[in-house]
Design goal:
Blueprint lengths: L1 H38 L6 H22 L7 E2 L2 H14 L7 H23 L3 H4 L4 H18 L1 H4 L14 H19 L5 H19 L33 H30 L5 H17 L6 E2 L1 H9 L6 H15 L9 H15 L3 H7 L4 H16 L2 H22 L3 E6 L7 E2 L2 H9 L4 E10 L4 H14 L2 E12 L1 H16 L3 E5 L11 H8 L8 E4 L2 H15 L24 H8 L3 E5 L4 E3 L4 E2 L1 E7 L2 E6 L5 E7 L4 E2 L1 H5 L2 E2 L3 E4 L3 E7 H10 L1 H31 L1
Parallel strand pairs: 4-14, 5-6, 6-7, 7-8
Antiparallel strand pairs: 1-2, 3-5, 9-18, 10-17, 11-16, 12-15, 12-18, 13-14, 13-17
Helix pairs in contact: 1-2, 1-3, 1-9, 1-12, 1-13, 1-14, 2-11, 2-13, 3-4, 3-6, 3-10, 4-10, 4-11, 6-14, 6-16, 6-17, 8-9, 8-14, 9-14, 10-11, 10-12, 15-16, 16-17, 19-20, 23-26, 25-26
């Protein structure tokens, strides 16, 4: 067994190494290209600039791989972080040709970006980043792509030393074109080889052949030049000149880079999960990325993020746990030993790679959004963010993007219906079973009882709309029940509106009731008490609060019945068996005959008449007191399924088809019941079939009414 495990581990390491090497081959030209695109315009030598991109890819991939937040994730410089860093440099430095201060600014920017990512990861902010609207992200990427394309004009327009076409028109531009064409062809025909590597080789070969054809036209600035060696390394972050730097711009840029880099990385993590079948840990991943950025900044590298293309190449090459580390180490080896390669690499090749990457950043979904009326607003947001990015800078675009995200959230909240569903007491009643006369009375008053299930947030943007929607019921209904189970929050404005509703309803003689009010929404369990604390001067307000809709409805039903002259004080009501509702259509003689087959039983409050799982074969008539049918959910909690008072009956299912009881029957108060056992009834039926048939017909009518109502309840629950 030990040998098999060792063999499996060894094979895994080999696969990780091969996957990492494949990813590194893809990242090398792209990383150098991004470094040159960022630093060369500010006077940093092309070799040193290319090195910054390689340091970033190596540090991020190694530290991210060690953190193991995402299996097989590989990182490198990316478009948004490149544009952000360029924006900071445009504010903090000028293209003087020296580059010393530029390196310090970039180092500080990258280190602060790393600190920001560690804070985001440690505080769980990775979850919040996912709430940035996709249209805003598309705008960032589109604007960044345009800026990256614009930045490549200078290296492609760099004149040579000759005259005419040989000087500059065709050599750099043609080299970039060959690089782009080769990478596009490789994506289509050579899928196993990284397209950027193919483009790098093809563009370099073309450039060197052009050099042989027109050697006199060539400029020394057309190649990267030798990369700095290990002996030339020094910490980029020094204390000299820190006081004179524009800290607000650098901090703002680093914060934006931390957010965008984290978003970019987590999106790549999701794609990696789809291929590996694993689940990424956002906290570990962002902390690893942050540590990699700090190392990159200290060593003179740039900022970056998880890179989708290279990650998928690593996965397809068999890489898993150590693929990122392997890719980073491979790039580190190139940094140490590959310095002379820069002397043959043309800047135009890297420009071609940047152009190819920039084109790939354009999201074609934007065109589809413009064609559809439903998504045109999203397209407008993306175009706005892209326009601000190009016309001003990405920092301002990030700020506008955040504002847009907030506005979109508020817009969604305002447009979302506050009333989830409304109905009357004709559609919904309590589980308390009533006599026929009581049901008739409640049916006559059903339209005077309005029940509304509210949802979402009742705050300054939605409270007034709720008030306007309830105005008709404030003028017509007598009872208004508001269920707040789906409400997430009530702010001061919302509470004030609820108070106004209560006062207006009270003045016209109505009754306002709340139910399912959980403490987390901001007004506590007792709504009237909470509203009076907010406005002590409020006097004309009478509010009841109940645990659930069922209890609220039972309370309303009892008040309606009391006003109609019914006695709802069940503890004081006493009936004779012959007064039971089910006997109202049966001749008295037959009723007396049926009652002769029953027996009377008494139970004290709290007694269980039967338990779930007990064998049952009896029907019970309630003469006095109250009985609950309960389904136990936990040791100390239960769901009340029905409530029976004098004149009602329960247990008919077990009576008609004896078997296990499906719930508990509990005496809420002292009760007097009349029990009719199935076996006794069968004996009685043989002796008095006419009475038995009459009773079964009435019982069947009752059951059919219950089934109709059950079907209605199922439909209502489906609409919930």
């Amino acid at each position: 067994m030990a040998e098999n495990n060792s063999s499996g581990t060894g094979k895994g390491v080999v696969r990780d190494g091969l996957g990492g090497l494949a990813a590194a081959a893809m990242l090398l030209p792209q990383s150098m290209a991004f470094g040159v695109a960022l630093l060369s315009p500010f006077g940093v030598p092309a070799g040193r600039a290319a090195l910054a991109g390689l340091i970033c890819a190596a540090c991020l991939s190694i530290f991210s791989g060690l953190a193991a937040g995402t299996i097989a994730l590989v990182s490198s410089p990316t478009g948004p972080t490149l544009v952000l860093a360029a924006g900071v440099l445009a504010i903090a430095a000028s293209p003087t040709g020296a580059g010393g201060n530029v390196i310090l600014i970039v180092a500080l920017f990258v280190v602060l970006t790393g600190i920001g990512q560690i804070l985001i990861g440690a505080t769980g902010g990775g979850r919040l980043i996912k709430f940035i609207p996709h249209s805003v992200v598309v705008g960032f990427l589109t604007g960044s792509a345009i800026l990256m394309l614009k930045s490549q004009y200078a290296p492609l327009a760099d004149a040579g030393t000759g005259d005419g076409l040989g000087a500059w028109i065709w050599i750099p531009a043609a080299t970039a074109a060959v690089t782009i064409a080769a990478s596009v062809a490789a994506e289509k025909f050579l899928k196993r080889i990284p397209a950027t590597l193919v483009g790098l080789v093809a563009g370099t070969v073309f450039f060197q052949l052009a050099a042989l054809a027109a050697p006199s036209a060539f400029s020394g600035s057309w190649t990267i030049g030798a990369l700095p060696g290990v002996t030339d390394f020094e910490f980029a972050l020094t204390t000299d000149g820190l006081g004179s730097l524009p800290w607000p711009a650098i901090i703002a840029g680093a914060a934006a880079a931390a957010v965008l880099g984290s978003l970019d990385t987590l999106l790549t993590s999701v794609l990696a999960d789809l291929d590996t079948g694993e689940r990424h840990d956002a906290r570990k991943e962002l902390i690893g990325q942050g540590a990699g950025h700090i190392a990159s900044g200290l060593l003179g590298g740039m900022a970056g993020a998880g890179t989708t293309g290279a990650t998928l190449v690593a996965v397809s090459g068999g890489g898993r746990r150590w693929a990122g580390v392997a890719a980073g180490l491979a790039i580190a080896i190139v940094i140490v030993f590959g310095g002379p390669l820069g002397t043959v690499l043309p800047v135009a090749v890297l420009a071609g790679i940047i152009i190819r990457v920039s084109i790939g950043m354009f999201d074609t979904d934007l065109i589809s959004w413009l064609k559809s009326k439903r998504s045109r607003s999203d397209a407008g947001i993306a175009i706005l963010v892209a326009g601000v990015t190009v016309a001003y800078d990405l920092l301002l675009a990030v700020g506008i993007g955040v504002v847009i995200a907030i506005v979109l959230y508020l817009r969604a909240q305002v447009k979302a219906p506050v009333i989830h569903r409304g109905f009357t007491a004709r559609d919904f009643h309590s589980v308390c079973k009533r006599t026929a006369a009581e049901r008739q009375c409640l049916s006559e008053h059903a339209e005077s009882v309005k029940i509304y299930e509210l949802r979402g947030d009742i705050f300054f943007a939605t409270a007034d709309r709720l008030y306007k929607q309830l105005i008709p019921d404030l003028e017509e209904a007598e009872w208004l029940i508001l269920n707040l189970r789906r409400v997430r929050r009530v702010d001061i404005t919302g509470a004030k509106i609820l108070q106004q509703i209560a006062e207006q309803f009270k003045r016209r003689g109505g009754h306002l009731i709340f139910c399912e009010v959980h403490k987390g929404i901001g007004i506590g369990h007792d709504v009237e008490k909470a509203l009076r604390k907010l406005s002590p001067e409020a006097k004309d307000m009478s509010i009841e609060t109940f645990v659930n809709t069922d209890e609220a409805l039972e309370y309303v039903e009892n008040r309606i019945l009391e006003e109609a002259g019914f006695d709802t004080a069940d503890g004081d009501r006493k009936l004779e068996p012959s007064e039971m509702d089910i006997f109202s259509e049966i001749p008295d003689k037959l009723v007396r005959s049926i009652i002769s087959a029953t027996r009377t039983e008494s139970f004290s409050a709290g007694d269980k008449i039967f338990r779930k799982g007990d064998h049952g074969a009896s029907l019970y008539f309630v003469l006095e007191g109250e009985v609950d049918i309960r389904l136990e959910t936990t040791k100390h909690h239960y769901k009340r399924l029905a409530k029976y008072g004098p004149g009602t009956l329960f247990g008919e299912v077990a009576f008609l088809n004896p078997g296990e009881r499906t719930a508990d029957a509990v005496a809420v108060t002292d009760v007097v019941l009349v029990e009719l056992d199935s076996e006794d009834f069968h004996r009685f039926a043989e002796e008095t079939p006419e009475a038995a048939v009459a009773f079964l017909i009435e019982l069947g009518k009752k059951q059919s009414n219950e089934l109709r109502w059950s079907a209605h309840e199922i439909q209502r629950l489906g609409d919930w």
